[in-house]
Design a protein that fits this description.
By secondary structure, the chain is mainly α. About 65% of the residues lie in helices and about 0% in strands. α3 runs antiparallel to α4 and α10 packs antiparallel against α11. This is Transcription factor domain-containing protein.
Length: about 325
């Protein structure tokens, strides 16, 4: 907790506290290691809180690329030591709703299924609480990592069954995409005023009423891009499945990916506003990954990205621009 507080202080004040943060970080890891050795396989809320703080510290002050993913994976392992019922009330519920988006994000980036896709983990923690819009959206998105894992496993499928397996993955992605579109329509219909303000042109930035709405939309668009990009890739890889093209035009999917990627990047200036402290920065990982990787697929997308880098995100500080560039290596849609 002390290391995270120092990191936040450094971010807010601009002071260089690297040595103090590092010493506190190492001390915390040693204490946590000893505590885990003693408790073994018993769930402990203090341990989960400590690992959460370490993970957030790695986002704000990374020691190595992707190190925060390891800590989030550790939080997930600790949470699984208990039943989902434990997280339906009190401090356990508050902790769960805070870490759930990061566990889903980690699963997306690592392309591995998550225990949170289990029906009990979707329903039980929210048995006595109404979900926020973002938590509700995660109910739909939580199955995507498992599909990505299945797609990666196609390389190991026998030749006589791989096409059938690919067809099943496309079907699942289509269903999720349809659910996401329906969810988006319902969400926008809840408000009598627009949920966000579109810029006058592609050089401008999007404006939102609050950070929660901005996070919801940028993650919605990221999930949609994941579905559409992988549908495109699978159709290109398996020409025998071209029948899907009757209902899904690959060119139309590509245009949608570019359009949503633009919206994500046009949202960045809002998300990293100073008053949001580190909360905005914590929330940009998946949307940024998807926007950059989606636009880097072809020359049309690259041209759009270059245009945005000299317009919509031009005035973002140098540190964040470096963050944008480094994030390109974090995760990649895998065209085959």
């Amino acid at each position: 907790m002390n290391a995270l507080a120092l990191s936040i202080t450094s971010y807010n004040t601009g002071k260089q506290l690297t040595k103090s943060i590092y010493l506190s970080y190492v001390h915390t890891l040693r204490l946590l290691q000893n505590d885990l050795r003693i408790s073994r396989t018993c769930y402990n809320v203090e341990q989960v809180a400590a690992v959460m703080c370490i993970a957030l510290l790695e986002v704000s002050s990374p020691t190595t690329p992707g190190s925060w993913l390891v800590h989030i994976d550790g939080v997930g392992e600790l949470i699984q030591l208990s039943s989902p019922d434990l997280f339906s009330t009190g401090i356990q519920h508050k902790m769960f709703i805070g870490i759930r988006p990061l566990i889903v994000l980690q699963a997306m980036l690592c392309r591995k299924s998550t225990f949170l896709a289990n029906e009990a983990w979707i329903k039980k923690p929210f048995e006595f609480h109404k979900q926020s819009t973002l938590q509700n959206l995660l109910d739909l998105a939580v199955t995507i990592p498992g599909i990505l894992e299945e797609i990666d496993a196609l390389d190991d499928q026998p030749a006589d069954t791989v096409s059938t397996a690919a067809k099943a993955s496309i079907t699942q992605l289509i269903k999720i995409r349809m659910k996401l579109e329906s969810w988006a329509n319902d969400f926008e219909a809840e408000s009598s005023t627009p949920q966000y303000e579109d810029p006058q042109n592609q050089h401008g930035t999007l404006r939102y009423p609050n950070l929660t709405t901005a996070n919801t939309f940028t993650h919605l668009w990221a999930f949609q891009i994941i579905c559409m990009s992988h549908i495109q890739n699978l159709l290109a890889r398996f020409p025998e499945l071209s029948g899907f093209g009757i209902i899904l035009s690959p060119s139309a999917l590509r245009k949608s990916c570019i359009r949503l990627s633009m919206k994500i990047l046009q949202s960045m200036k809002y998300l990293i506003r100073k008053e949001f402290l580190l909360y905005g920065r914590f929330s940009v990982w998946l949307p940024l990954n998807m926007a950059y990787h989606s636009l880097n697929v072809d020359q049309e997308g690259i041209a759009v990205l270059q245009n945005l880098e000299t317009s919509a995100i031009r005035d973002i500080n140098i540190e964040m621009k470096t963050h944008f560039r480094n994030i390109k290596g974090e995760w990649m849609i895998r065209p085959k």
